[in-house]
Amino acid sequence: MLASPFASRTLALARGREPVVALTGAGVSAESGLATFRGADGLWNGRDPADLATPEAFARDPHLVWRFYDWRRRKARAARPNAAHLALAALERQRGAMRVVTQNVDGLHQRAGSASVLSLHGTLWRLRCTAENREFDDERADLGVLPLRCECGGLLRPAVVWFGEPLDPAVLAEAEHAVRTAALVLVVGTSSMVVPAASLAPIARRAGAWIVEINPDRTPLTRHADEHVTGRAGDLLPRLVAAAGFDVEVA
Ligand code: BJW
To answer: Which residues contact 243 (CB under 8 A, 6 or more apart)?
Structure first.
């Protein structure tokens, strides 16, 4: 068996009974074949995906933004939860006292079996009518003619949070409560550049949590974390779960 790359304090907290929070970003789904936002692979048709995730982009060209989200839905539907999603779900099932707070909209944590997911940026699988402000689930594989329209004639949009839009205050308050009361916070696969999500680890740290960042690269959080473990989530999270003494489900 490979030696654990994690500090003994991390393993003791993972083994213990005090609350754990996993704060996740696009990197956790990278090994499922879903592109991250930033970096060399973070391009869609020559565009920066983050430039398409704005209300201004939608107002300018709803057809273009809908093609981006239709593509994302197709990719997410075809993807499978990877070893990182499964390891977090296995940890939650066996240890309890755990929450996943994700910026991802792909639904892969839920499909892996995590029951305690807080989705900060919404989900690909819900739509909102821009005229009536009404939301409903929509898991169709084929959306048909884009941009989508509501029965009322208004434009439909994905129920995700774009730049400049507020997060659901109830979801954000629950996430802040989770990190304030956590003993261990695992920050996995996020560039920690987008607020308010990126403020959650500093909030946790000020409240006394032990912060562990899992990422192949350094981020603005790295120098503030108690431990930075360099590598891929799909390699490292199963090793963390096993080294803490729990069973790991294999992808
Ligand atoms: C791996 C890996 C492997 C790879 N294993 N790791 C100046 C101007 C305008 C706005 C602002 C401004 N300054 C600040 C703002 C606020 C803005 C913001 O933060 N901007 C920054 C860019 C500066 N934030 C907002 O606008 C937020 N709202 C807000 O603040 O509201 C205030 C308000 C209050 C009241 C009224 C009105 C407003 C909203 C932010 C919403 C972000 N939305 C998106 C799209 C969601 C829908 C969708 O998915 O399409 O969320 S943008 C995009 O970024 C997406 C992501 O969730 C988010 C974060 O990205 P993430 O997950 O970190 O991905 P990457 O690609 O950045 O990083 C991946 C990481 O994985 C990398 O580090 C890799 O190394 C790593 N990795 N392989 C482990 N195998």
So the answer is: 4, 6, 11, 14
Atom of ligand 1 at shortest distance to CA of 232? 5
Examine the domain organization and report whether 187 and 248 are in the same domain. yes
> Which one of 37, 125, 168, 222 would you pick to mutate in the ligand 1 pocket, going by the greatest count of ligand atoms within 8 A of its CB?
37
Asked whether residue 69 falls in the same domain as residue 88, the answer is no
User: What integer pLDDT is reported at residue 44 of this predicted model?
Assistant: 87
Count of domains for the chain: 2
DSSP E strands, 92-172: 98-102, 117-119, 122-129, 135-137, 156-160
pTM score, two decimals?
A: 0.97
121 has catalytic annotation: yes
Domain span holding position 185 = 1-34+80-121+167-251
Q: Which of 194, 221, 237 to mutate to test the pocket of ligand 1 (most atoms within 8 A of CB)?
A: 194
- Do 6 and 71 belong to one domain? no
Distance CA 9, CA 75 (A): 38
68 Cα nearest atom in ligand 1: 50
Residues 41-79 pLDDT 10s:
888 888 889 889 999 999 999 999 999 999 999 999 999
Tokens of 109: 């944590």
Contact 22 CB / ligand 1 (< 6 Å): no
- Ligand 1 centroid to residue 227 C-alpha, Å: 22
Terminal Cα-to-Cα distance of the chain (whole angstroms)? 19
Same domain, 73 and 131: yes
Q: How many CA atoms lie within 13 A of 31 on its CB side?
A: 19
